[in-house]
Amino acid sequence: MRIIFLLFICLTSHITYADKLLILGDSLSAAYGMQQHQGWPALLQKNTEWQLINASISGETTAGGLARLPALLTEHQPAAVMIELGGNDGLRGFSVELIQANLSKIITLVKQHNAQPLLMQIRIPPNYGPRYVRQFTALYPQLAEQHQITLWPFFMDSIAINSDLMMADGIHPNIAAQPMISDFMADLLTELEKK
Question: pTM for this one?
Answer without folding.
Answer: 0.89
